Amino acid sequence: xxxxxxxxxxxxxxxxxxxxxxxxxxxxxxxxxxxxxxxxxxxxxxxxxxxxxxxxxxxxxxxxxxxxxxxxxxxxxxxxxxxxxxxxxxxxxxxxxxxxxxxxxxxxxxxxxxxxxxxxxxxxxxxxxxxxxxxxxxxxxxxxxxxxxxxxxxxxxxxxxxxxxxxxxxxxxxxxxxxxxxxxxxxxxxxxxxxxxxxxxxxxxxxxxxxxxxxxxxxxxxxxxxxxxxxxxxxxxxxxxxxxxxxxxxxxxxxxxxxxxxxxxxxxxxxxxxxxxxxxxxxxxxxxxxxxxxxxxxxxxxxxxxxxxxxxxxxxxxxxxxxxxxxxxxxxxxxxxxxxxxxxxxxxxxxxxxxxxxxxxxxxxxxxxxxxxxxxxxxxxxxxxxxxxxxxxxxxxxxxxxxxxxxxxxxxxxxxxxxxxxxxxxxxxxxxxxxxxxxxxxxxxxxxxxxxxxxxxxxxxxxxxxxxxxxxxxxxxxxxxxxxxxxxxxxxxxxxx
Length: 497
Hints:
This protein is mostly helical. It has helices at about 15-20, 25-35, 40-45, 50-75, 85-110, 115-145, 150-180, 185-210, 230-240, 240-260, 265-275, 280-305, 310-330, 345-370, 375-385, 390-405, 405-420, 435-460, 465-495; strands at about 5, 15.
């Protein structure tokens, strides 16, 4: 394979296999930030003295703020074309903001005067950092490769890293950090934050090395010619790019549900209270790791043949079916029998783990398939309008995504209040009740199923199948060749001066 260059015998930009494997570490770094900020409510109620509902509203307002600023950040970043590479530049800026915000929230600001103000400030700074980091993701995914056989591999490795590291982190936190700290305390979440920051820095260094061969000025069509993205171009995107519209419907509905189930208090609700064994969540993750990775490699191999659209439909159905199986198990069998795995109690815990393995694998494949749609949409817009707009396309998606999915924290906050958690977070030692059980089922199963149903509806109107993408790449190959020649001429002219 060529090193991120256009192959003379192909219409595609291709890259080396090691780049496909390493660049997705950038997206995994974003997952580390999500894990850390998922414990912000514990800091809010425990150290900042902010009530449950108020903390949820602040989190929601922060996401709305993210949606508002995203278009402005995208307009600026789609004009950025530094010699060091747009992706590397955006990554350094975005992650820098994120790290500062985490240290402010989890280690510093609750000891400062006007700590309520600082809590809001660092939440907003985290939003800005996440926005810039997400734009770097959209841009990097679009320029690394346009080969339909390679693009699913980006998301294969992304899910591999996320699954492996997510499982490892969950085990460390639930079975080591929490017991050592005597519960989910300030000390526990601070240790977790330091671990996440260390992993983030390591992963981003590797990711920037991988994207470097592709992250070149000549690969950004139009940026050196003064054809910068304008607000009217973004309006045109919203109105005329149907695949983007359907990607928004599919992605946003999933996002709400996935954010809800990742919030730490929801995990405590299910495993700590309903099942009665908080550490069992780590056990499930440990047993799921290897099977999920094997399943992911097999599933993404199939995706190369089926294409993103067909894959989203198939895996959404699989997720719905397995969720119904899980719900039936929780209703028919006493949930406490699934926890506390031992030599005398292993059949039901093992059955539960098997169901979770299959459901997690299907969910990972669905996420990979949905995310794999985004680079194709960038290529479609270049084909449709002649504009290379990865940041703007990512912005429009994220604007709606962040605005709509901002309700996830508020949903959880009001749901917890509805079952009696008004001023404190759920703890693993709390007693269970029917209200707690059904709330856990709604948050962990009901919301995700609604998201997958929306996927099925959206794909009915998604036009980018395999035949259409071949036509698009043939057209775009000519544009890239013309842009490369123009860029070389410009460099020669500058050198002559």
